[in-house]
From TrEMBL:
Gene3D superfamilies assigned to the protein according to its UniProt record, in alphabetical order: Collagenase (Catalytic Domain)
Stretches of the chain forming a coiled coil according to its record: none
Keywords attached to this entry: Signal
Name this polypeptide is given: Lysine-specific metallo-endopeptidase domain-containing protein
Entries under SUPFAM superfamilies matching the protein: Metalloproteases ('zincins'), catalytic domain (SSF55486)
The organism's place on the tree of life at top rank: Eukaryota
Signal peptide (from-to): 1-20
Organism of this sequence: Polyplosphaeria fusca
Any GO molecular function: metallopeptidase activity
Top-level taxonomy: Eukaryota, Fungi, Dikarya, Ascomycota, Pezizomycotina
């Protein structure tokens, strides 16, 4: 999910050179509430939350790595979640889209990408009391991102529904017609938010006004509007990466037809 104030102010924050990113040391004056790990800054997060978030970031990388391995035209999941581009007009194009997953697969060391005023990907654990109401006072949003600053707020429901890849049983073949949402780890939400921060993806709408979240609606959005909607919608990245991950570890073949998914969607 995203908050959209000051969009233009955020556009200058992308792809700054590595030399522009400060490295914290004992001589640098830093807020005591910020802890740095790799390319991430954890703001107002206690040690336990930081440890858990690092597990989910690693899961996001694992999802992205499998997505990178199959992200090419002709793959059934790729075509379903991102559409086809026979006229070579898509943005991002197929090569660019694949490179996005490559970057996400090593995001903990992605020091050439700037997502905030100091160049780090900022995760904030103080969302519930934030004056800008980053979580929109809802129990359903696991995370919210502010485009202008690149800050990703971790909301109450993120912790309530926390699930790492190591705790999800690999699906069996007959579960392939179920919703991927059942098998999507919490790290997938971080992957979703990172696409907002780095590439300014959106949360697109279907014709009926529903947001394109989760397995069914991400597929339906591509059915309605083709590649443009799929490649600019954050949750299509999460769902494709989830399908790619479990496709590499089980014989379940996930539905690419939104009308044939047998279980409901999650509440992003």
């Amino acid at each position: 999910m995203i908050l959209l104030p000051l969009f233009l102010a955020a556009t200058s924050l992308l792809f700054q050179p590595t030399s522009a990113i400060p490295t914290p040391d004992s001589k640098t004056l830093l807020p005591r509430s910020v802890v740095y790990r790799g390319s991430f800054a954890f703001q107002n997060c206690d040690d336990g939350h930081i440890t858990r978030l690092q597990i989910h970031i690693q899961d996001a990388e694992r999802l992205a790595l499998q997505a990178y391995a199959i992200a090419r035209p002709g793959n059934r999941y790729y075509d379903a979640f991102f559409g086809t581009d026979p006229d070579f007009k898509a943005h991002p194009n197929d090569a660019e889209l694949r490179e996005r997953f490559k970057l996400l697969s090593t995001i903990r060391s992605a020091r050439n990408v700037r997502s905030g005023s100091d160049g780090y990907f900022t995760l904030r654990c103080d969302a519930e009391g934030a004056p800008d109401k980053a979580c929109l006072s809802t129990s359903r949003a696991p995370m919210m991102t502010v485009w202008a600053t690149g800050e990703m707020f971790v909301c109450r429901s993120f912790w309530a529904g926390e699930l790492s890849l190591s705790r999800i049983a690999a699906p069996v073949p007959q579960q392939g017609m179920q919703s991927l949402d059942t098998f999507s780890p919490t790290g997938g939400y971080i992957l979703h938010e990172l696409t907002h921060v780095i590439w300014f993806t959106n949360d697109q709408l279907l014709r009926n006004g529903a947001k394109m979240y989760a397995h069914e609606y991400t597929l339906r959005g591509v059915q309605e509007a083709g590649w443009h909607r799929g490649r600019t919608n954050a949750d299509n990245y999460r769902m494709f990466a989830t399908a790619a991950y479990w496709g590499s570890r089980s014989k379940a073949k996930w539905s690419v037809d939104p009308d044939k998914i047998t279980t409901g969607r999650d509440g992003l």
